[in-house]
Amino acid sequence: MATSIETSFPDAPSTTPVLEMQGITKRFHGVSALQNVNLTIYPGEVHALMGENGAGKSTLMKILAGAYIADEGEIRINGQPLKITDPATARKAGINLIYQELNVAPNLTVTENMFMGSELRRGQFLDRKAMQLEAEQVLDSLGANFTAQTIVGTLSIAEQQQVEIARALKDKSRVLVMDEPTAALSDRESDHLFEVIRKLRSDGIAIIYISHRMEEIYALADRISVLRDGQYIGSLTRSEISPQRLVQMMVGRSMQDFYEHQRQMNPGPVVLEVRNMSDARKKIEPASFELHAGEILGLAGLVGAGRTELSRLIFGADRKASGEVFLNGKKLEINTPSDAIAAGIGYVPEDRKDQGLFLEMSARKNIAINTLKQDAKGGIVNWPSVNRLSTEAVENFNIRLANLEIRALDLSGGNQQKLLLARWLAIKPRVLMLDEPTRGVDIGAKSEIYRIMSELAAQGVAILMVSSELSEIVGMSDRVLVMREGQLVGELDGSLGKEITQEKIMHYATGASEVSAL
């Protein structure tokens, strides 16, 4: 993710807190979701709230926004106690929460969305002119590229997000909570959002920023507070922030234990060989490479370099123009994903919700769906086998769920990703392709996924990993191939004296290596 905010931040605020949450405790059916949590927010700061899924971040913010009521504790606004019993009370106090799933009415105009529930009136009639004028003034202050009369459903996700921000500003927001605001945005849209956040901060608005993307936290946060298992662990000022300290606070172990993979210096035999693979749309130039048993091969490059497209060609998900795939020296005829699966090749796509999971189906069925046919007896599902497979997968992958009948849709991002991994490992693959394996998951789930990958490699599974996170590529790869504009342009292999570093990857990815060679 590109980040463009570069500015100086004070290490310690000198003003009175705009928000204090003290001793917040919340229980659901006797189980503590939050235990004596404290949070202090100052005007004009971006305060990152971090922690694994299930750490209590959402529960704490829903208490602040009035969706839940705390069992114990106190909330103060500008030093004055405030009992928040519903969302209306929170909004009246200047607290607004922008959820990851945006809350807009697509068939209404921007103005109508901004004033929904708080319409201006002149006598018995709506004062549409006054509302539109105020809406336009707020949109101008945000630098929006749409008008107050625009139908919200015609806007992009990034623009709809601006509508929610505009609504908060119209309500004179003092504290704005943003939950994973860049999850559905492009790099350019994210950069524009960062500019808006910088302006809001300069206007004195306090922003509570929730994100799993470390690079965003480093770029934006004045301070960070960390929750773990429903408890407040501590806060860091900007000068105290480091990957080592954050990982230790969030997962309770050191950075050295985060990437568990021991780099393979003596790779096994070639399992997968790809020769001259290209696509019909001419986005991928003929590409050739080998993948060894027990090896994690990283495929790096900038967004749009062709990494996902190459993976999909190998798997038979897209039509190829040329190319051959060999498994253990035997040529395969892969025209569809079913052909790849039958050969023992698995593929975890980058978009688990749209391309990977069956969201309305149970966790049990999602895990077993690739093996239902082979386990069936006379066309009848072998449910004892399905139950055994699913139960073992939940235990082996530490998938956190209430029961196996829960829908995939209702699981956290990390648990959804582990569910998808469990499905593909059920086919006992010889080759496993992972496209952005830890995108949108918290740091604890990342560590779990890295553990699973390391164990698979130790068992001899050949892994091709596509990732946009350079730290992930460097930390988990035995060898790295770099793509640029549809071509494989470089290879890094520590065993051959080509050390794997972020700088060298970026040299290949941007073409700087060719410039320096001139």
UniProtKB/TrEMBL annotation:
Record has tRNA processing as a keyword: no
The species this protein was found in: Nostoc punctiforme (strain ATCC 29133 / PCC 73102)
Main location: membrane
Presence of the UniProt keyword Nucleotide-binding in the record: yes
Entry superkingdom: Bacteria
SUPFAM superfamilies: P-loop containing nucleoside triphosphate hydrolases
Pfam family, one: ABC_tran
GO terms assigned for molecular function: ATP binding; ATP hydrolysis activity
Domain ABC transporter: 19-254, 269-510
Protein name (database record): ABC transporter related
GO cellular component entries: plasma membrane
Mode of membrane association: Peripheral membrane protein
Family annotation (InterPro entries): AAA+_ATPase, ABC_carbohydrate_import_ATPase, ABC_transporter-like_ATP-bd, ABC_transporter-like_CS, P-loop_NTPase
Coiled coil: none
Keywords: ATP-binding, Cell membrane, Membrane, Nucleotide-binding, Repeat, Sugar transport, Translocase, Transport
Localization annotation: Cell membrane
